[in-house]
Write a structure and sequence with these properties.
The chain is an alpha+beta fold. The protein folds into three domains: 167 residues, Roll (SH3 type barrels); 108 residues, MgtE N-terminal domain-like (MgtE N-terminal fold, Alpha Horseshoe), CATH 1.25.60; 111 residues, CBS-domain, CATH 3.10.580. The protein contains 16 helices and 21 strands. Helix 7 packs across helix 9. The longest helix is centred in the middle third of the chain and has 11 residues. The radius of gyration is 27 Å and the shape is elongated.
């Protein structure tokens, strides 16, 4: 391994690209794994956690790393692409040590870890050497450091008991605010139940709703049931109505009804209508709030609606045209305008002139197999759903269908764990 530099700070490595010797990118560095040596000295750095394509995190041992600096990491040999699982005395530097509070051995007070340095010894092994800390309150009246001052200290200058405070949930949420909901949900699944509830409780209602929608049903139920009942109702209001209905359907009927009573009447009404359908029907799969406009609306108005950030790509792909009222169930359903059509016509064109009259809507009682066949036959991302009176009651999207056709545990299924050859030989 390269011996230059012999010291690196972990925070400066986060997000760096990890390459093989030929320049092919393996992924990005997301954390560093250290192994406690108890009273024998500073922790031994045993490897790094790399996020590979597909947002999966894998372990790369330090023995496979040939170069590491503040611009890139280069590794060699074989890397097991099985999802990283923490073992025994292993500690994740970023996830578990950053923001820990430690007590300084000189008796001057507490400090919070903000960064950690690791040094390479002559043997080639890496060890934690320094802590970059921010002072808390001072116990010594004449301490040379004031509150919020920072300093670099030796590992041995801070008490590192076996049960030091874990990273605060608030800090974990702040450090991962840019993660997509599906990736945040994946991180939650790797936590203990206690830790998962702590982190979930720190999320804003809208963020928690987005994350819950990406979790397996059992985890959704556990987290929602652990929340204060009013907050649970608030989170359900932020969820897509179809996802909220699916979650409530997993709860005891008394608990589900209590939550529905606490929700805003309009949102609760949408969810109640969905709960009336069998889960394998178009009505059970659909969302009751697609983009709905009258035929007099223009292309410009339609484009403004589909630009809304909260819309999924599948829902934004189609505009459903109906007579007022425009809330589901609508007035008479007229048809669909596809987003590609909007891009081919001038802004002032009326949507009524662009309706796809060849696309038949689905009955709300249609079985999921019919829904899937229709989506596949016409290469569509979404389909209109109408009731017996011909009123639009919602739309089914391709991701709704996939969620129901895939196995219940598909989010946790990693499949095989291939080994990737990165060049060079295993020594």
């Amino acid at each position: 391994m390269s011996t230059n530099p012999t010291r690196v700070f972990v925070a400066r490595l986060l997000g760096l690209d990890v390459f093989d010797p030929l320049g092919d990118r393996l992924g990005r560095l997301r954390d560093v794994v250290v192994l406690s040596r108890g009273t024998r000295g500073a922790p031994h750095v045993v490897g790094i956690v790399v996020e590979v394509p597909g947002k999966k995190r894998v372990f790369v041992p330090m023995t496979r790393i040939t170069s590491i600096d503040q611009t890139q990491v280069i590794c060699t040999g074989l890397v097991n692409l099985r999802r990283f699982e923490q073992r025994g005395a292993e500690t994740l530097v970023v996830a578990e040590m950053f923001d820990r509070r430690v007590t300084l051995t000189d008796g001057s007070g507490d400090a919070t870890i903000e960064d950690i340095a690791m040094d390479q010894h002559r043997s080639g092994d890496w060890f934690v050497s320094k802590l970059f800390v921010r002072r808390g309150h001072s116990l010594a009246p004449l301490s040379r450091l004031r509150r919020n001052e920072t300093m670099i200290i030796d590992w041995a200058d801070a008490h590192q008991g076996a049960k030091t405070e874990p990273q605060a949930a608030t800090q974990f949420v702040a450090n991962h605010e840019d993660l997509k909901p599906a990736d945040f949900a994946e991180a939650l699944q790797e936590m203990s139940d206690k830790r998962r509830f702590e982190v979930a409780s720190e999320l804003q209602d809208e963020r928690l709703a987005d994350v819950l929608q990406e979790l397996p049903e059992d985890d959704q139920v556990e987290i929602l049931s652990a929340l204060d009942v009013q907050r649970a109702a608030d989170v359900l209001e932020e969820m897509d109505p179809d996802d909220a209905a699916d979650l409530l359907g997993e709860l005891p009927s008394a608990q589900a009804e209590e939550l529905l009573q606490l929700m805003e009447p309009e949102g609760a009404e949408d969810v109640r209508r969905l709960l009336e359908y069998d889960e394998d029907t178009a009505g059970g799969l659909m969302t009751p709030v697609p983009v709905i406009l009258p035929p007099e609306a223009t292309v410009a108005e339609a484009l403004a609606h589909v630009r809304r950030e909260e819309l999924s790509p599948a829902l934004a792909s189609s505009i459903f045209i109906a007579r007022p009222p425009l809330e589901t169930p609508t007035g008479r359903f007229l048809g669909v305008v596809h987003i590609q059509q909007l891009l081919r016509f001038p802004p002032f064109e009326s949507l009524g002139n662009l309706v796809d009259k060849n696309l038949e809507p689905l009955s709300d009682l249609a079985h999921i197999s019919e829904v899937a066949r229709t989506l596949a036959t016409y290469n569509l991302n979404s389909l209109p759903v109408v009731n017996q009176a011909g009123r639009l009651v919602g739309a089914v999207t391709v991701d709704d269908v996939l969620d129901h056709l895939l196995p219940d545990d598909w989010r946790a299924n990693d499949g095989e764990a291939p080994v990737r050859k990165l060049g060079g030989r295993i020594g």
